[in-house]
Design goal:
Oligomer: single chain
EC number: 3.2.1.31
Mean pLDDT: 92
Number of strands: 34
Main location: other
Bound molecules: beta-D-glucopyranuronic acid
Structural class: alpha/beta
Enzyme class: hydrolase
Subcellular location: Lysosome
Shape: globular
Strand order of the largest sheet: 27-28-29-30-31-32-33-34
Number of helices: 13
Largest sheet: 8 strands, parallel, barrel
Keywords: Glycoprotein, Glycosidase, Hydrolase, Lysosome, Signal
Distance between the termini: 58 Å
Helix content: 10-25%
Low-confidence stretches: 1-22, 636-641
């Protein structure tokens, strides 16, 4: 008799009862890892692809393209996964396509997975932008609302139905944004035939990055036994030299915490509880300690038996032990003041768009370390899990932002938008809660928070996020318009973006010292909360030079940074707790009269070559690290990166 599904799922109970009360999700979303009980099979590479260019974009559903091979219902082209589809071909209509696109791939499933009924086979999509529907051999297995976050379906019973058939996976993805999606957008039809061709429409968006689409992260199959570890929640704390590593799990689990050398430092066979570690190695940020980013491994081993079999599942989670606290003037990591000197990023590069790419990721981490950056914000959406794992490994501190960017229309503050926003926070916290590098949640970027409904919206959203995870502070990012402060009473840290001498008083560098000082004093005066300068910067087209500096030259970008730094140096002695440059690298945007082949505020080009501003920032960040941290011995030679 097979194990009944409910008994088969050993959901690790969350530490905080309130989590259960507010979280609507009923399964975990552990990152797929191989272990003695789990196998992973990546399905990346070449997929068949077709964009549904029919006038209503709905032919694929009307003609049920998922029922047979995609190549049987029309022409297909090659499409790499993971990648955005926009920049892969020479077809301008695909670059700017809006609507459903169809991906398909046949997979050979190991015979053993099929033969062994005690094996769960799970199909997982790391992220697809934006709305996805998934079929296996023509049967719908799941759909998911939202980009940037993973979703899964168990497909074992389907592939066992007819083991002689190959496993055909079809994924339809739609990038249409509505007033209720995150980010929001809307479709505008132009019916004036004296101006526009028949059927012409555009998608209006209120954010400043190209709305890349497609399957952006890995698609994979993984297995677990029928009884399996579904979720783990680890919260760390310490007192003197003792650590309380709290976690909760089903009674038949055993948790073992191992140090870097594989030595067991604590274990427990209780369903939930405290693992005490003596002589703990804390997780410290990069440049704050001589031995940063120390990670333990927590092995969770589950044993279960039914009338026929015994199941054993093993999942190993990297665990960094650290605390985070906020006072009215400081951000504390392990009870020591932490100053964010870092960047804002985008998942963005030539050809692959927002597609996951290991070489790019490793290069970016090398550049971050070269720069002396100790942190970044995942502007303006959750980044790939592998990026957060790199942050854990290298001690790069993260402000983890949800895709709440461009909430500018009053209709996007309604109930259905809020419900979706809460669900996205549930998914984000569920995915990222165990990363030591993640120290704060950001619920939105520059919303139109001056609008009256914003008060209820952000109060609900921020309260909900704090209840999901009481161990981390919450922020939302505001702009320099001081009227947009609804929401600010509920956050722990105020994050402000400002572009003095750029969008305001363009060309007038002399306004920066006055306006920036006023900005800080206004916000601190009203809320007495620590402040991060969460964005500042200026566009510079690499290779444009001008002295005296003029806008878009490398010299102007440098001068803006230096003026900001003078004020930041005064205010960081009081309550300013960080500065994040906009942006790490140039990135693609929608076409428009203020963008010349994308946003050029990068201190690196899109190809990751430094502009003059990168050297200014590098000099500053290493100086700040010297003042505020304890540099590892090897960092005496930063040039070796
Ligand atoms: C900020 C936005 C960011 C933009 C930046 C800019 O948060 O997304 O890219 O302005 O205009 O306000 O460069």
């Amino acid at each position: 008799m097979p194990v009944p599904a409910r008994l088969g799922v050993f959901r690790v109970l969350c530490l905080f009862a309130v989590f259960e009360a507010v979280c609507l999700l009923d399964t975990g979303m552990l990152f797929p890892r191989e272990s003695s009980s789990r196998e992973v099979k990546e399905l990346n590479g070449r997929w068949d692809f077709r964009a549904d260019k029919s006038p209503n974009r709905n032919q694929g559903f009307e003609k049920a393209w998922y029922k047979s091979r995609l190549a049987e219902t029309g022409p297909v082209i090659d499409m790499p996964v993971p990648a955005s589809y926009n920049d892969i071909t020479q077809d301008p209509t695909l670059r700017d396509f809006i609507g459903w696109v169809w991906y398909e791939r046949e997979v050979v499933v190991p015979a053993r997975w099929i033969a062994d009924e005690g094996t769960r086979v799970v199909l997982r999509v790391g992220s697809a932008h934006y709305y996805s529907v998934v079929w296996v051999n023509g049967v719908k297995v799941t759909e998911h609302n939202g980009g940037h976050l993973p979703f899964e379906a168990e497909i074992g019973s389907l592939i066992r139905k007819d083991p002689t058939q190959p496993c055909r996976i079809t994924i339809a993805v739609n990038n249409t944004l509505t007033l209720d999606t995150l980010p929001p957008g809307n479709i505008q039809h132009m019916d004036d035939h004296t101006k526009y061709p028949d059927g012409f429409f555009v998608q209006n968006i209120y954010f400043d990055f190209f709305n890349y689409a497609g399957i952006h992260r890995s698609v994979l199959l993984y297995t677990t036994p029928k009884a399996y570890v579904d979720d783990i929640t680890v919260v760390t704390d310490f007192l003197d030299n003792t650590v309380n590593l709290k976690s909760s799990f089903f009674t038949t689990l055993k948790a073992t915490l191992m140090d870097k050398n594989g030595r067991c430092v604590a274990s427990s066979s209780e369903p939930s509880g405290v693992l005490k570690v003596v002589d703990v190695n804390l997780w410290w940020p990069y440049l704050m300690h001589e031995n940063p980013a120390y990670l333990y491994s927590m092995e969770v081993r589950l044993m279960a038996t039914d009338s026929r079999s015994t199941y054993e599942d093993v999942y190993t989670l990297p665990v960094g032990i650290r605390t985070v606290n906020v006072t009215s003037t400081q951000f504390l990591i392990n009870n020591k003041p932490f100053y964010f000197h870092g960047v804002n990023k985008h998942e963005d590069s030539d050809i692959r768009g927002k597609g996951f790419d290991w070489p790019l990721i490793v290069k970016d981490f090398n550049l971050l370390k070269w720069l002396g950056a100790n942190s970044f914000r995942t502007s303006h959406y959750p980044y790939a899990e592998e990026i957060l794992q790199m942050c854990d490994r290298h001690g790069i501190v993260v402000i983890d932002e949800c895709p709440g960017v461009g909430i500018k229309d009053i209709r996007s503050f309604g109930n259905s938008s809020l419900t979706h926003h809460l669900a996205v926070m549930d998914e984000l916290v569920r995915r990222d809660k165990n990363h030591a590098s993640v120290v704060m949640w950001s619920v939105a970027n520059e919303p139109a928070a001056e609008m009256p409904p914003a008060d209820f919206y952000f109060k609900t959203l921020i309260k909900h996020t704090k209840a999901l995870d009481p161990s981390r502070p919450v922020t939302f990012i505001t702009d320099s318009n001081y009227a947009r402060d609804r929401g600010a009473p509920y956050v722990d840290v105020i994050c402000v973006n400002s572009y003095f001498s750029w969008y305001h008083d363009p060309g007038h560098l002399e306004v920066i010292p006055i306006q920036l000082k006023t900005q800080f004093e206004n916000w601190y005066g009203k809320y007495q909360k620590p402040i991060i300068q969460s964005e500042y910067g200026a566009d510079a087209v690499a290779g444009f030079h001008s002295d005296p500096p003029v806008m878009f030259s490398e010299e102007y970008q440098k001068a803006v940074l230096q003026s900001y730094h003078n004020v930041l140096d005064q205010k960081r002695k009081q309550y300013v707790i960080g500065e994040l440059i906009w942006n790490f690298a140039d990135f693609m945007t929608v076409q428009g009269i203020t963008r010349v082949v994308g946003n050029k505020k990068g201190i690196f080009t899109r190809e990751r070559q430094p502009k003059a501003a990168a050297f200014i920032l590098k000099e500053r960040y290493w100086r700040l690290a010297n003042e505020t941290g304890r540099l590892p011995v090897w960092t005496k030679y930063p040039c070796s990166f």
